[in-house]
Write the structure tokens for this entry.
Amino acid sequence: MALIELIELRKSYRLGELVVPVLKGVSLQVEQGELVALMGASGSGKSTLMNILGCLDRPTSGQYWLDGREISQLSADQRAMLRNSKLGFVFQNFNLLPRTSALDNVAMPLSYGEANISEREARQRAQEMLALVGLQDRVHHEPNQLSGGQQQRVAIARSLVNRPQVLLADEPTGNLDSKTSEDILSLFQKLNQHGGITIILVTHDPMVARHARRTIHIHDGLVVEGAYAAEGNAACQEPAPEATL
Amino acid sequence: MNTLRTTGTALKALRRNPMRALLTTLGIVIGVGAVIAMMEIGSGSSAALQDAISSMGANVLMIQPGTASSGGISFGAGSVTTLTPGDAEALAKQCPALRGVAPEVRARTQVVYGNRNWVPSWMTGTTPVYLEVANWSMAEGDFFTERDVLAANKVCVLGQTVVRELFQGESPIGKEIRVKNVSFRVVGVLVSKGANMMGMDQDDILLAPWTTLKYRVTGSTLTTANQSAAASTASGADTSGAINTLSKIYPGQASLYPERSAAQLADNPMPVRFENIDRMMAAAKDAASVPAAIDQITSVLRERHRIRPGDPADFNIRDMTEMTKTLASTSNLMTNLLLSVAMISLLVGGVGIMNIMLVSVTERTREIGLRMAVGARGRDILRQFLVEAVLLCLLGGAMGIIFGHGGSKLVQAVLGWPVATSPGAIAASVLVAASVGIVFGFYPAWRASRLDPIEALRYE
């Protein structure tokens, strides 16, 4: 069974009287250990899909199976626990706590875990994660003392600290220059290949999507898997990356 | 997430913005500091005030003989002589609520020194315990002793007014003054006490052993109206008549009764109290034990005077009810005043905390979103912000205690005001500071916990 399976997932928002459908029946599967790029123009519903995949939001209808469990109707607290144990998030703007050391930033999610990890153990684990992303000598630096790439590495270390099965990266290179982007993306690839972590990259940039082994295109609330979504998408002017299905 | 780690997180969050945390707590610091300082200075002043009022005689009880009445005509308070020095000694021994009992014999007559004379408002015969009971002290010389009382020595102690009137700057110690042609040696001078509550000069006083005043000075005592005593001593052929001045009140008065023979006197001695005193002054241990003291005095005296239950007592006790009430209401008023001031400043401090916590929640919306994204539940966020607010208040409270205590010590050092450390106020301040944190921190924390993680993460 696939690690992630979405079946006929729909999401609509209410704007007063008006019901605006955003996802119109998305079905897709992501296997354990995949590195998937989720592409789509703005307004295509990829952020909404991302939020639902990240258990931050609930679908209006449809099913979401994560690791053999149907989770679309869980309560907010249950979803919080799920996010803590199974999912890791990497954001475009890093979202590090200001004036807080890299170590504390990385250790932060551990304090919300169910298993009561001691302070020492937490620091130990955070240190390991920082070493994993190559920042073992920046442990006590605060975010404003780190470059953008380094900050994103800290964010990645933070997302990994709870040993999640799935890493969700929302435009992880959006705020970085191309050189640093390249570094970060190869870090993702490394984590995927050596760590066996399932990674979903959300992006509008085909250059980024190229690093993924498979690209899922979202267009107007529907999955157009492997297809070339041409119309009105400036970012997709060059040939679509090979979809390795 | 356990409380210890939440506290750690909260501390780290506060440390990210130390200046703001400091300014936020300023309200609490000032509030608690003001409470502590006021409580300490207030309780010091209150203690001093109580001492002062006590020294004015709030704890003093006057025990007076009862009223004589004949055929429905009352002769007024003190018209019978029912109190004896023995009563005073018994009261001092048997009433644990009393600090001391001083008998008083009063006279009013002229005092002469050299070419000057003066009539003191008070000329009181008493025992050395008077000094303690009246809360008085000596400016010069010594008080007369128990031995002087027993021997009826002709010594006296003067108040400042008498000294001024008679001696005019001269030192009176060791000088002889004449009281009704009896020569008294001045052994001491009392410190000035000023006017009493009725505006009478308390320094206009002459104190002497009660035996001396009673037996040697032929002054008119308060018992002038006591016809029966006069009659009995006049009629009595006992030896004490020679020294009992009472017999000289109505000299030459014809006896109303036939003389009794020596055999009659021996067989049936007259039950006359020669050693009566005009009144007693008793001091309770403090103003609070006055009611207990009254009870004890009543029971002891009723027993000594063999008054049956239900019969009216032959004495009455006057306390300074008005003064005691004033004392109680003064300290009540003071406490309430301080409390309301404290409440206002803490309220203001609390509003400041709420304000800053709201700002903090808004400012840290992204952080809240992030924490939620990595698995924090609503109640984790609630707890984190609540702990932060409480921590702010407690830190402010601790600083306030230090500042308040330091301030009161400073006041003590600089202004010399009396200060009393009050652990109760410190404990109460800590408690109040914590509850201010909870009350005013709850709303911002609740708002933070209700944020939608998606919205929060997108917040700019």
Observations:
- Residues 4-236 of chain A form a domain with the Rossmann fold fold (CATH 3.40.50.300).
- The helical segments of chain A are 46-53, 76-86, 102-107, 119-132, 148-160, 178-195, 206-209.
- The CA atoms of residues 5 and 29 of chain A lie 4 Å apart.
- The interface with chain B takes residues 51, 54, 56-57, 76-77, 80-81, 83-85, 89, 91, 95, 97-100, 104, 108-109, 111-113, 116, 119, 158-159, 162 of chain A (CB under 8 Å).
